[in-house]
Each structure stands twice: as structure tokens, then as C-alpha cells.
Amino acid sequence: MYKEDILEDAKSCEREWEKKSKKIYEKKMGVNLSGFKTNSNIPIKYVYGPQDVNEQSENFGMPGVYPYTRGLYPLTYQYTPWMTQFLHGYGLPDHTRERMEKLLKEGMAAGKGVLAFNVECDLATAHGYDPDSNLVKGAVGVSGVTVSKMEDLEILFNGFDLTKTRVVLTTKGINDLAILGMYIVYGKKRGYEPDMLMGQSQNRVKNSFITSNVRGFLPQNQLKLQVELIKYATLNMPNWNHTNLCGYNLRETGITAVQEVAFTLAEAIELIEEGIRAGLDPDDFVSRFSTQLAIGMDFFEEVVKFRAFRKIWAKVMKERFNCKKEKSFMLRVHAHTAGSSLTAQQPLNNVIRTTLEALSAALGGVQSMHTSSYDEAINLPSEEAVTTALRVNQILQHESGITRVSDPLGGSYFIESLTGQMEEEILKIINEIEERGGFTKCMVTGWFKELMETESYTWREKVRKGEITIVGLNKYKKEEEFDVPVFTLEQEKTEKIAIERIKKWKQNRNNSAVESALSKVKERAKEFETIEQAGILMPAVLEAMEAKCTIGEVTEVLFETLGTVYP
Amino acid sequence: MNKSKVLMTRSHLEAHDRGVKYILRKLVEGGFEVVYTPFREIKEIYEIAMEEDVDIIGLSCSATNSLYIVSALMEIFEKKQENFPVIIGGVVPNMDIPKLKEMGIKEVFGPGSDPDEIVEFFKNIMGNSPRN
User: What pTM value is reported for the model?
Assistant: First the structure.
């Protein structure tokens, strides 16, 4: 791309730089001039010039143009800032509804006229249990809101226009068919057909099995359930994101940014192949994958990660899956600042960490963001801490001026060069996963787990030895810790009320209708032997929800029929 | 000489296990024998501890309600007339720590605690333990 004479000039400048550097730093200070490595172990130079990007430079492209390295849309945040989608939820649905209203009042926004609620379900619901199960004592209303029956959705969402409200009920993905079924039936009761609903299913049972210690179905059945949901949503719910590709949870186990993207894409590739086997055209469903990546502290590597992620996606959809529709190439990304980067020590420092992370995601061109609260390493976020986290976005969007130009770092020799390196490293790992038999195979053999545990241990040892600096933790420590207000929930009282409510729910329904609906789910699940049969199960789940079954009841039936494996 | 034996455990509902897995490796490096099993019901902590004949229990609580788990566990200890030293690691609100200690918890190690200090603490407990 560069003219010969400019390139020659640049190379001679670099030789001069080297000569001077050697003289000053290598000889006098003993510094090694080979450069550092990023957090993903990608070697980087001390300084970059046109010679470093000459071969890729013709592909810099423009935002909104294939392969979308520089952003999905021609304009990025000039008129539509990234959405602030905060994961929230605690206690009873009543508590969470209160928090939702407060977040709206503080300006949590999903775009013009659209609301978004990314509701985290409590530990019991997330793991597929109802609050009255013996296995969840002390966990109801913890780490999220208890959701088990239609009544809970009424408390959470009554009064909102569901055609303008993006609803996500976040669990570990093992009960997503039941949750989606319940939301559809809830919608119908309020006069909304499934094709009018907008939102997202997590649908990430394998990811959770690897990352979150969640029981799973037998591996071959996990894929079937995922494809079942994809197929139902594709055929009936055009505004629904059927699957959340959750790099975030993978990353939080301790792996690198390169591994995060590679694992995430490998899972997507496998799911798309299975979707095709189930009779779907990739052009009809790949644009409804949603993604959620972590944002770590290696600033430039994180910026570049989002660029490489979009670029590889576009190429895979075009070249491997022969997609034709433009939206199939365009990967929308939600980014979540890394909880694991926060410290319990000197917690206010976390506001700074989160701001840097959010800035890198914004410069990487993401569509949506969750920014962590500064007290997350201490307890569930307090209202004040959540508001400050929201303000991080608002200050970046309204005060910093970074939204005025699309992809402002595009064309930087360093950024473009690193994008190329990262793409190469990600593709190498995707190839390795495929050579090892694909995502599910790597889950079954424990290869992912092994890598995660090694990375996590190595990182923590480096922190212990001071090879990695974490301010306030292993450097600039303080004897006296600054106390922040701690958010508390009356957990035992919450649990008691949740159990009373579900008992009442079960008393006030036609329990023989419940029984027959559950046995129908069971039958369908038994008949569901191959991926090609996808579509067989969801109608029975919907009937079960009409009959007032709970999420836990439907989930248990599926586990009984499709086999349980523990991590 | 027999190695001291530790049960490291967490609720089956805990997704967070980086901390507990790291500490258990540090304990092994520090000369302990470690059993790592998550529990589904609280009584399983006691059952596994008895079955494995451990000297210390390390309980990891990052999302789950440690006050609830510990009070139920201590009730079981009392009923069975058995006692194990219990050490907690994870995300525990500062204000809960005195209550946990009052219930008999030996120490609570929060996020970012010095792993060498934790291993040392386990060793000291062994030094004072009647089971040693």
C-alpha cells in the first residue's frame, strides 16, 4: 500500500532508531531491545512504523464495510452510543423490580425508545432448581433474583411494553428452554405473539459446564437442547437472540484474550454446523448469535481483540458457511469489564480499572457494555456503586469526546499490526480445537479445563512473586483499608417468602394437568434422538408452562431423561 | 510421618473456584494432603470430613451465604459431638467476619490474601490441633 520510497524511508528511520536505542539503552542500561509481550503472550515491539503494516494495510478498510474490523456500522457512537446493559438482580422479584426502576431513572439506556433488562437469576434458578429444593438452602435470592414461575415475571415486567423491552434472564443455560417457554407464555397472556418479543436466551449449557461448575446433560444431549432453542427462535422469534456466546465466563477462569476469542468462535462454529444439520440455513440464524466478551486490563490488546473478533467472524461466515446476507457477517458484541481484575483492597481503585477497560471496549467499537461496580470484590454491588459504574459510561459518552470519530485508533501502525498478529494466533487455536475434535470433544476430554487451571495458577503465582503488579494488592499496599458501604440482603427472610410463594403457586393450580404436561415433556425428550429432530421438544415445554409448571420442574424432567453429568 | 489432611470444599452452586483451586495447590506444595469435593447439602461437608478423616476443613464461599452455611455446619458438629477446625476463603463481607469467628471459624481469608500466609495458618492450626 505504501509507496516504495515512503517504505524505504521508514525502514531507514527504523534503522536509525535501532542504532540510537542500542547506544543509549542496550549498551548503557543493559536493556533488551526485543520488546515486551501482551497478556496473551504476543510479542510486541517498542515502536511501530509503516513497515510493520505494509502487508495488511490494504485491508484496513472502513467502519461498516466487510470484514468490519473497524466497526459494524459506518458511524459508531456519534448518534447511537453503546448500550449500557447492566447485569442486575437480587432477592425477590420485588427487590429486583425496584433496582430496575432505579437504573432506568439513573439513565441506563439501550437506545432510542428501547429498554433493556439483563436480569441475573439467583444461584438456585441459575443451577436449575426451584427455591423449595433441598439443594439450594441459603442460596435463594443470592447473586441474583429468584425466578421459578410466571408470577415472578409478572412482578418483574408488568407495565413494560414487551415490543420495546429487551429481556434477558441470565442463568447458566441449563434451563433456558423452560425460561424461554415461560416468557413466551407470559407474553401471550399480555397479548404479545412470540415474534413481537425481543431479548436473548443464554443457551450456553456447555460453556457453563466448563466455566461455572454447573451440572450438564450428557454431551450429545447438550448440543440437541441448544439446537432446539436455536431452531425454535429462528422460526418463531425474529427479534430474539437465541444464543449468547459467552467468552466472558471463559476468560474469567484465567485464560488469555486470544484463547477467549478462539474458544468462543470454536463453540459458535460447532453450533452453526449442528444448526445446519437440523435443517437451518446459516443466513437465517447466525445473525442472532449474541456475544459477550470480557474486557481485561491490557488496554491495547483488548481494543484489538474486538477488532479481530469481528474480522474473523465475518470471514468465517462468508468463506466457511457461504453466508450471503450482510447481517450474517456482522457480529454484535456486548462487553463486560472483568470482575477478576477488581481488588477487594482499596476498592475505589476499581473505578479507575473499570474506566480503562470500558474505554478500551469503546475504542474497540462494541455495541453494548456492562461496567462493574467498584465493590464487586467485596459483596453484591450497592446502589451507589452501581450508579458510579453507570456514570463511567455516561462520562465517556458525554464528556470525553471519544464518540466523535469512528474507530479513532484505526490506522495506528501498532493497532493494525497487533490486529493481524492476534487474528493469526486466534486462528491457530481454533484449528487446534478442530483437530482435537471440536468444542464438545475438548470439553469432554477436559482439555479446556486443564488449560484454564494452568493459566489461572500461573497468573496467580506471578502475582504472588510480584512479577505482575496489581496496585493496592502487591504494590502500594495500605495497612488501613478504606471501608465502603456494604450492600446487604435479608437472605433468610427472602428465602422464606420465596418458598411460601412457590408452595402457594403449586396449591393453586391444576396439579393433574401439571403431571400430564410434564410427562409429555418427558416423552418428547425421550423421542429426541438426533439433531435432525430438533423442534420436537419446545411445543411440549410451552404446554407445560401454560399448565403453570415451574422452571425447576421442567428442568428436572429434562435431566431425568437426558442424563446428568457433574463437572 | 503422616501428612495432615485437608478437605477443601464449596457449595455445588459456586461458580467461582479459581481461589479454592489455587489455594489447594499451595497446600499440596506446602506438604498437605488435600481432598477437594463440592457439597450439595451442608451435611455432606461433615460426612466427607469424617469419611476422609481430615484434620482441617477449608470452605470456599464467594457467592453463597457463608453465615447460613457455617451456622448449619456448626449445628451438625454440635449434634454429632465432633469438631473440625474450619477456615473460610472467598468473598465475605467484612461485617460478617466477627460473627463467623464467634461461631467458631478460625479465620477468613478474603480476595487477594497472601497464599503463603494462608498455608502458614493451616500449619499453625495443625500445630495446635488435638487431632494431630
Answer: 0.95
